Amino acid sequence: MDKSEKIILGISIGDFNGIGIEVALKTFLDKRMLDFCTPILFGSTKLITAYKKNMDINVLFNGIKQVDQAIHGKVNILNLWNEEIEINIGKPTKISGQYAFKSLDAATNSLVKGEIDVLVTAPINKDNIQSENFKFPGHTEFLESKLEGESLMILMTDKLKIGLITGHIPVSKISETITPDLIKKKVAILYNTLVQDFAISKPKIAILGLNPHCGDHGVIGNEDDEIIKPTIAEIQNTGQLVYGPYAADSFFGSENYRNFDAILAMYHDQGLAPFKTLSFGEGVNFTAGLDKVRTSPDHGTAYELAGKDLANINSFKEAVFAGIQIFKTRKEYKSLTENTLKRSRQKEKR
User: Are the beta carbons of 296 and 20 closer than 8 angstroms?
Assistant: First the structure.
């Protein structure tokens, strides 16, 4: 297999009782998608065959035992297991959680080794996947433990990118978690990803406040005045275009978000609630800050839709496109910066 021909796209199947396999297979019903990448689903041909039969999804696939056997122009299924497993479409089970981890772990290992270029993860159930091997609140934290770098969850479309300063933590712990160092770290990750992954040379970033009305000068909390504002001022002194804090309740309704390349929200729902309102079914979850590219659709397992031919594939398809584009942009950025460094060193030698 000539790896230079096409991007090798790994797909973890998620909870097979949800909609993950369905949206993945239906994405590649459009054979034009195979012009952009060579997909490899980490699962088993027996499982995919049973799923195809149940859902009447007519996708031809190529079964393989290792990544380098993948064939360009086809959907490839990497066989991780041969046993028959019980499928209960629409219902989370202990078994579906166990095999979701097997798929994710194998796909992540291939990503680490460079056998695949991009990983797209189908939705997991954060409860039934828990085990001795998976003690994480979600994909992001698991991937951070396996890959190099520090992660930043970004929900994105072509026109909207929202990063999260705190991720999957209880609301009761948000305030104590937000520190100047954490804000600076997340701004740095966001700034770097906008430059290297999205080719934005001078990003303009908005930061949302923590408290209602950014605390109203201490009437509704002091964090905005004592932590967030001084930290933003420090970052601005470095020359970066970072502004805020902005009151979250009016920021999106006033369409102020359109004036920025990206937004940093203080906590999960502060960022994801408006994002999903504005772009649900079209958005992509991108794990920035790591040395490898991972994307996913912006929805969950959607058990209520599973097996009913009702699942929308748009978000999964956008996750595929986003992963491919980010990989290409990052590769080009790395090439350009390495060439610039080589030229500067050559001048120094002269």
Answer: no
Sheet holding 7-12, edge to edge: 61-64, 75-79, 37-43, 7-12, 118-121, 293-297, 284-290, 149-156, 161-164, 262-265, 204-208, 241-246
Three-state DSSP class for residue 103 = helix
Sorted by sequence, the CB contacts under 8 Å of residue 228 that are 6+ apart come out as 178, 183, 207, 209, 210, 214, 244, 245
pLDDT digits (tens, 9 = 90+) for 166-223: 988 999 999 999 999 999 999 999 999 999 999 999 999 999 999 989 888 888 889 9
Please identify which residue in the block is written with the tokens 């993860």: 121
Q: Report the largest interatomic distance among the alpha carbons of the chain, rounded to a whole angstrom.
A: 69
Band (342; pLDDT cuts 50, 70, 90)? low
Residue at token pair 């994480």: 136
pTM reported for the whole predicted model: 0.91
The angle that helices 20-27 and 314-349 make with each other, rounded to 10 degrees, is 70
Distance CA 193, CA 185 (A): 12
Dihedral pair phi/psi, residue 220, rounded to 5° = -120, 40
C-alpha distances out from residue 321 to 89, 246, 285, 318, Å: 27, 31, 12, 5
- Nearest in space to 115 (alpha carbons), one of 166, 76, 73: 76
Other CB atoms within 10 A of residue 18 CB: 30
Contact 146, 51 (CB under 8 A): no
Q: H-type helices in the chain, by residue range?
A: 20-27, 45-55, 94-113, 139-146, 174-177, 180-196, 223, 229-236, 248-251, 268-279, 314-349
Q: Residue 154 in contact with residue 285, Cβ under 8 Å?
A: yes
Specify the 3-state DSSP secondary structure of 274.
Answer: helix
Are 34 and 69 spatial neighbours (Cβ–Cβ below 8 Å)? no
% helix / strand / coil in the chain, to the nearest 5?
45, 20, 35
Q: What is the pLDDT of residues 18-65, one digit of tens each?
A: 999 999 999 999 999 999 999 999 999 999 998 888 888 888 899 999
Please state, as a whole number, how many other Cβ atoms lie within 10 Å of the Cβ of residue 33. 16
